[in-house]
Amino acid sequence: MSDTEDIVCRDLVRIFRSRDVEVQALQGLTLTVRRGEMVAVVGESGSGKSTLLGILSALDEPSAGTAVVAGTDLSGLSPRRRTAFHRHAVGFVWQQTARNLIPYLSVAQNVAAVLAVAGVRGRARADRTAAVLDLVGMRDHADALPEDLSGGLQQLAALGVALANEPRVLLADEPTGALDRESARAVLATMRAVNEASGVTMLVVTHDERVAAQVRRTVRIRDGRTSTETIRDDLDTGPGEEYAVVDAAGRLQLPESFQQALGLHDRVRLSLHDDHVAIRPGAGR
Ligand code: ADP
Ligand code: MG
């Protein structure tokens, strides 16, 4: 892994086995996120998004494959290194607001509590708490309890908590999943602003296509593998360019909309040109 990559997953496989069923939640997922990038991983329910985040946050381990996050190889982490990883290298925002915030503490106390656990004391703790609340636009709500805030503001508070220790990487699992359209937009906009201002690397997983439209790089996950990517050069103008991942065996997955538009099924015609490969509907069999 080079110094410019903050998340590197190679061929991640995660199999859940119960007594008589086996679920392959990840089936060889490969993904690289560069330092300072903000990436959305988008896929339908059951496509393996939470499984991926469980592994990247070192709460779960893959059945096969490797994951390196913020310079830490997550395979076989000792409990001590895992704790250090959780306290300093990564921050999390979960969909369920209850999982993000301690209900009987104010927003500022929630942020300060994380700093206290990490050993930040006195003036430094107060200063950092104020800076984080400014960063996520929650200074006016510093003394509010979570239950007194809207869902969107609760997620901004959660973002502050996740950023308290200045992690290199922020992981978010459906952070806007429980929000209405407007709040979801606002939370995403703040996440983007934080990404740009602080350079923290962000991976957001979601089933919401509208989130995807607000993030420059979108990676699609289907059946536990990343399939296609969209890069938008200008977020405010329509769809961006589509990219597909070519795996080590030369396979690539076409976006479903491309397949449907031209009836690309079974066998397609390929031709190699100077600077591109053309794919046309096959002539049948
Ligand atoms: P997503 O977050 O994209 O909705 P998940 O990662 O939660 O998808 O789940 C992917 C697949 O793995 C689903 O089929 C789900 O039922 C299965 N799965 C997830 N966690 C477990 C588990 N602990 N035990 C058994 N199956 C699981
Ligand atoms: Mg999920």
Description:
The protein is α/β, with parallel strands linked by helices and 285 residues long. The chain folds into two domains: 5-253, P-loop containing nucleotide triphosphate hydrolases (Rossmann fold); 255-285, no CATH class. The chain is 32% helix and 28% strand. The protein has nine helices and 13 strands. The chain has helices spanning 49-56, 79-89, 97-100, 107-117, 122-135, 151-163, 181-198, 209-212, 256-262; strands at 5-17, 22-34, 38-42, 64-69, 72-73, 90-93, 169-173, 201-206, 217-222, 225-231, 241-244, 268-272, 277-281. A seven-stranded mixed sheet has the order 6-7-8-3-9-10-11, with helices on both faces. It has a four-stranded antiparallel sheet with strand order 2-1-4-5, with helices on one face. The chain has a two-stranded antiparallel sheet with strand order 12-13. β4 and β5 (72-73) form a beta hairpin. α4 packs across α5, α4 runs parallel beside α6 (151-163) and α6 runs parallel beside α7 (181-198). The chain is globular, with a radius of gyration of 21 Å. The model has no long low-confidence stretch (mean pLDDT 89). Residues 49-50 line the site of magnesium ion.
